[in-house]
Amino acid sequence: MRLSEHRYRTITSVKGPLLFVDRVFRARVGETVQIGFPDHTVMAGEVLKVEGETVLIQVYGETRGLDLGSQVVFTDALKSAPLAPDVVGRIFNGSCEPIDGLPMFVPEKYAPVSGFPLNPTARARPEEFIETGLSVIDGLNTLVKGQKLPIFSCSGLPAGDIAAAVLKNARLAAGGNEKGFVVVFVALGLAWHEYAFYMKTLDEMKSGFVAFVNLAGEPVVERLLAPRLALTVAEYLAFEKSMDVLVVITDMTNYCDALREVSTAREELPGRRGYPGYMYSDLASLYERAGRIVGMNGSVTMLPLVTMPEDDITHPIPDLTGYITEEQIVLARELHQKGLFPPVDVLPSLSRLMQNGIGEGHTRGDHRQTADLLYRHYAKGRDLRRLEAIVGRDGMLDTDRKMLDFAEAFEQEFISQGVVRRGIGETLDIAIRLLRKFSLESP
Amino acid sequence: MFDGLQRPLTRLYSETGPFIQMPGEEGYPTYLASRLASFFERAGVVETLSGATGSLTMILSVSPPGGDFTEPVTQACLRMTGNFLMLDTSLAYRRHFPAINWFQSYSLYDKAITGYFRETVSSDWLELKQRTGKLLQREEALREVAEIVGMEGLQDSDRLLMHTAEKIRVSFLAQNAFTDDAFYTPQQTFERIRTILQSHDRAEKQLEQGEFLEDVAKGEDS
After folding, report:
1. Which of A5, A380, B58, B79 has a CA that sits 20 to 30 A from residue B151's CA?
2. Is the confidence metric ipTM above 0.95 for this complex?
3. Which domains does chain B possess?
């Protein structure tokens, strides 16, 4: 601990969001600094690197207008998130300042934004079902507590509507946590029209959410900070207040682009497509914060949205995300053009932890069997569509035509549900009705 | 209106050289996406201090080099804007103008604007729009089959559908910029597509009653 405040006017260079400050005495990596601008505004920053007496600082904001004579104050404190139960129902910007017009709450404690690593042996298996109200997720790619299930979207697809539907509908199946269910929403680099849409959704929910919002025109560096603040709040609510927390992060592509931008400014060697080589471990440090702990009631479940650049699932962002998370929900343009909502392509979508969260005691005994049958028949029907394009419908066998009709009906009636909410029972009933209607094998 | 968004951005491109910045994708600086985003964010509707309402709308044209939509500027624009009109070279070669591809183009404001059209034009707006979309999509699929088996190999109902889709493309989607055809009010747009779809419904019924496609089509065109 320092007994006096350290102030410097020794900035030697400003490069984008980065400052180099010289002749600094005992700075710490990760330390928060305050930068006074010539027009008397103050902005926060963080120490990235200390080399002898030279310190590299990352500024959380636009550095335009800064000059070399500006003052830098070293606070001797690490970047931390203020925590209290009052955080629920509030909206913050990427630096944890309230933007909903209400005063800042009184923090009960502070925790570092990087979080504490979870002891692998303390982790509990994710096995409790979360009902999202969407058939295609509940029935075929079930979300369980403590899981991370990204949604892979393409530009122009209604991923936002799906996230909003999950936000509104997600609640625990009967017999869940009585302490409460809360949504932590993180908006990264959103355009105004998307932001306005999410805010409307959150407003309609009235309570049960915490939002961290960084718009497209706001500082890029805050985009890296916002998800960490949000996860720290999520961990606090989950593991100290025993709540079930669903973290929705949109859009991870903007996060990775911010990571690339800052990395380039730091003159690091670029890796694939210019993204830094450590992007994998950086993403893991976020995604891996989801989970449950043995002997604790709360859980952190993550639902990140990724917009695949160029609709390319092999792009580094969806690729690395897919490595870390327990698989994905993939949206397809063709289904959207057909007017289906949600336009989820079930074949490449998969939830690896589904097995633990379904069946007797979680959803229903016939869940697994029904899902498997749907997959089998639909995949067959999709294959046959290619054949149909060549030989025409009339040239096909009766059984094949039946499969084609099934695939069509499955898309129209099971996948597509519009904005209505379906319980898991209803979802499975529709599936079984479809299987029987086409006199296919059913459980 | 901003024509040729690419050109000022190639300046950013050359900026990376003298300032020794590490280039990102295809030589563009890595801050391309965030810089563009903060530019787009300047569009919007605001209430001024005097209580009046003003709006700033942006129409930007981007010409991806070589028609490659996967290049960085196009991708950044697609991610940040809410509306995309794709000009299609194959439509332009066919002299179909405006050469806007009706499958690839999209608007994220769809829901909001549909409500507006339903109020001001007709409550059938959404239904007609979806029917037209489906019809054109079905035509696309049928055309692939027709290329293999020939038009004669198709069922009559499918041939009728191709006929209607053709009509939609030629007399609804294509507009001649040098005549009065160039501008339609939403009301006129609605009337035109409704007429086409109504005559399609009529023809379909006649087919079901056993009339020949040739007669039906003839009656329709006269």
Report:
1. A380
2. no
3. 2-81 (no CATH), 117-221 (1.10.1140.10)
